[in-house]
Amino acid sequence: MMQHYPVLSIIILFLGAFLNALFGGKSSIVRNIITFLSTGTSFLLILLLIKPIMLEGKVISYWMGNWIPVSDWAIGIGLEVDQLSLFFALLVSFTVFLSGIYSFKYMENDDTLDKYYVLYLMLSGGVMGFVLSGDIFNMFVMIEIFTFAAVALTAFRNYIEGALEAAFKYIVIGSIGSSFILAGTTLLYAQLHTLNMAQIAALMHKNYTPITLFSLGLMFTGYAVKSFIVPCHAAAPDAYMTAPSSISMLFSGMVNKAGVYGMIRLLYMLFQSINLPSMQILIIILGTITMFIGVTMALIQNDFKRLLAFHSISQIGYVITGIGLSTALGITGGLYHALNHTLFKGLLFLCAGAVFYSVGTTDLNKLGGLAKKMPHTALIFLIGAFSISGLPPFNGFVSKWLIYQSAYEEGFVIVTIIALLVSVLTLASFIKVTQSVFFGQLSKECENAKEVPIGMRIPMWIMAFMCFITGILPQYVTKYLITPAVSATLNIGKYIDAMLKDGYAEKYFKETVPVPNINYKLAGYWRPEYYLILFIIILLAFTLTVLAGGIDVNRRSIVSKEIEDYKYDTFYSGEKSEYSQVGGADLFWGLKYDFRKYFNFMHSAHSGVVNDYTLWIISTAAIVIAYIFLLVP
Amino acid sequence: MLILKYLFYIFVFPGFLFCFFAGLILAGIDRKIVARMQKRIGPPILQPFYDFFKLMGKETIIPNSAAKRTFIAAPVAGLISLVTISLFIPIFKFSAFNAVADVIVIIYLLTIPAVSLIIGGSSSGSPYAGVGISREMVSIVSYELPLIIALLAVGKKAGMAVNDGMVTFSLSKIVEYQSLKGPMLFHWSMIPAFLAMLFVIPCEVGSLPFDIAEAEVEICEGPLVEYSGFPLGIYKLNYALKIFIFSSLFVTLFLSGNGTGIILFDAAIQYVLCIIVVILSVSLIRAVTARLRVEQMLKFYWTYPTALSILSLILVWLGL
Question: Domain residue spans in chain B?
């Protein structure tokens, strides 16, 4: 029975989409029930797989329509779920489930919602199918499904300025990425006459032709486009900004993770014997550029969601860097950060959605003072902001720390320094958001804002709670989720044997397949439970002091009743506030002034012209291919 | 018994009470020395205590435009994180929580007081605070780069000797290295990093000429403009604690070693060294300079101190 769970968890999402197309137009209750049941069942099925796969180390293989291999040659489409696939499937199904719950309230004022849910479930099913598939052509098909669903969802609120333009950019850039992947897949098929990932990995072991290397370059670029790595990122900010927040969460939580997953499979599975350390430098350079450019672009944004989109790009840079380090510790950091990024960035997008729901805009210049109106959202946002900036004891700290450590150990000092600096800039950027959205003066637009309904707050609280849990219990997360996934990434012999038959890998490798030994020595110590205990004890002490009445905190003024007394007004040097000349709107003036050349260059580079962005991608492809041919032996 | 021991660590030594006295006295010494350098008599050394207790007794006014809970909670969060850091900094061979003393953890924990200042200021709803926090943010970005590089250089230097050639981020390993090979300062390749760190201290604690965030004459103490009474007192305490903790971290990184083995003497030596470091890096500079502009500060930190710490890092990497 268990081997049917993966395929069921994919099919149920697609089934939900078709049912929604048929019956979803009738009433919102039908729609919501169908969506909730299909995403919930899919999530449950994936959860049930944790025990056999993560804990017992099984690998589930499944041949669609029972087209089993004939004389060791794969014919049918295979699904294969090892620990790495399951790790990503968990991220996907968790995000999808929460985003679905959030959508019920968040989207209630839009029309043609049946189409929204159809596309939403197609997107989810596409990504789910992608991460569970064991067949590269099937992966391409799933990429097409989720890319086109994503494009349509980007333009779903087509009354928002720029939505159609964003969708256009996304379709052009996304199609280029898909074409690269298709071309790479075709070349591999022409060379090896099979599409099964396990079989390709076995056949291609230390047996490369120029054509397979060319295909590596194409597919690498294709997946780089899918995960929005700089310089292939140009479609992302627009798409994230204009899509509904529940969808932006899916974009950053799983669509670009799909690209990362594809990249891991490509590098560690298909081309595993290509001598990864030589690919290492290219990937690390790309990752470092991505994190730096992402965060600096985020500093100068004036739109809440656009800013989050650039941060999303920047955080993917961390993931890619971690994976590119190709040590067990690096991959652990990368995958941990992928998990954390899904949690905190999803949370932040949900907060942006909550703000949009209450106020109707995400323009940072129009927002302000929302913490008084929406205290829950403000608190949740702070948790998300601290997590992404990597303040202990939240989760961003753990994974970033692993990445710094592994980069430093491998001798990439500059990468560690840039990564730490990017972390500081991330913090600075989120302080700007906190200041201009939740604190500061209450703006005109926000006067009638209300706290969002409980249906939207529940997913946000769950995400916030998860951010905290993964931050304070890293050793359990590592032990039960990350380390199995890392060992699956490196243990390709097991993957091949589980798909085809025992000893298959050894037959083609012509040597015993090494089983990776995952143990790493940490240069420092991270024991978050100590911090938690400390924080709690000290907090208790202070609360006691305050409660004992030793210090008068003036309890009266904590009551939110407004008191008419000039003493409680804000200080404006004796001027009336409307005549005050104190501006202070631009929080990064000093930084922008010192780096004006850089910022001007970046500003003009992001011209908004799709042709330019296409050129960037083609150039990236050219560079990657040239790199592979010149430097990889 | 174990719980009592930890409670003692947290609340008495090297935690809250020790930091409280050490920090405020250090702030008093700093004020006195600056005054003497400027040919003033200056306040008594215990003046920060008087200030603190006076503020505790004053009425706390929370403006109507403030997000009230955040307004009160922000300074306390900053204080908590400072006390937490104090537990992780080894005093020669003694440290309260040995297993968790880690340089990167400390880098991040050190940003929390600054963040608490920013969050508190921004929750007050004042435009002056808005200007102040933007400056505070630029100052964080400024000093963080040389600080990171200097710490990495120290970690590499110690790790090459005592951690099988790998980097170490553990503070107790760094102390162990110094007890074997003498203080970091006596290794000439570490002198540039030492100088860079000396420059970082005044910016980290926010004293002249790097107190752009709290410039009284321009923006009325920026983030603190709306604060009064109890939370203001906590912020003043945070300032004093920051001076002490950062100089103590500095001493641990560069001037530590075997010590005498008796905690009391070790703490006294550490404290005397802290006073010297503060006089050198905070008081001396504060007495003779005027406030910088925002963009000058960023430019300064990203050139000279950064170059110095990079020089150190390269030297260490070359094995010198």
Answer: 2-317
Measured CA to CA, the distance from residue A629 to residue A633 in angstroms comes to 8
DSSP A269: I
**SS3 call for B182:** coil
B119 touches chain A (CB under 8 A): yes
Residue B45, classified by CB atoms within 10 Å of its CB into exposed (0-12), middle (13-18) or buried (19+), is middle
Which segments of A476-557 are extended strands (E)? none
**Rounded Cα gap, residues A398 and A340, in angstroms:** 9
Cis peptide before A528, with omega less than 30 degrees from 0?
Answer: no
Nearest to A419 by CA among A290, A281, A256: A290
**Cβ B220–A573 below 8 Å, yes or no?**
yes
Shortest Cα distance from B259 to chain A (angstroms)? 23
DSSP B222-289: GGGTT--HHHHHHHHHHHHHHHHHHHHHHHHHHS-----S-HHHHHHHHHHHHHHHHIIIIIHHHHH-
Backbone angles phi, psi at A298, to 5 degrees: -65, -35
Say if the Cβ atoms of B135 and A435 lie within 8 Å: no
Domain ranges of chain A: 2-536+594-631
Question: What is the end-to-end Cα distance of chain B in Å, rounded?
Answer: 46
Q: Tell me what ipTM this predicted complex has.
A: 0.82
Query: Could you tell me which residues come within 8 angstroms of residue B307 by beta carbon, excluding any fewer than 6 positions away?
Result: none
Q: pLDDT tens digit string along A79-134?
A: 888 888 888 998 899 999 988 888 888 888 877 888 888 888 999 999 999 988 88
Look at residue A397 and give its three-state secondary structure: helix
Contacts of B144 in chain A (CB under 8 A): 420-421, 424
Residue range A256-304, pLDDT digits in tens: 889 899 988 888 888 876 666 678 888 888 889 998 988 888 888 888 8
Helices (H) and strands (E) in chain B, counts: 14, 0
Alpha carbon distance B192, A50 (integer Å):
52
* CA-wise closest residue to A432 among B133, B214, B220: B133
Cβ atoms of residues B101 and B171 within 8 Å = yes
Closest residue on chain A to B101 (Cα): A525
Tell me the two tokens of residue B300: 């300064």
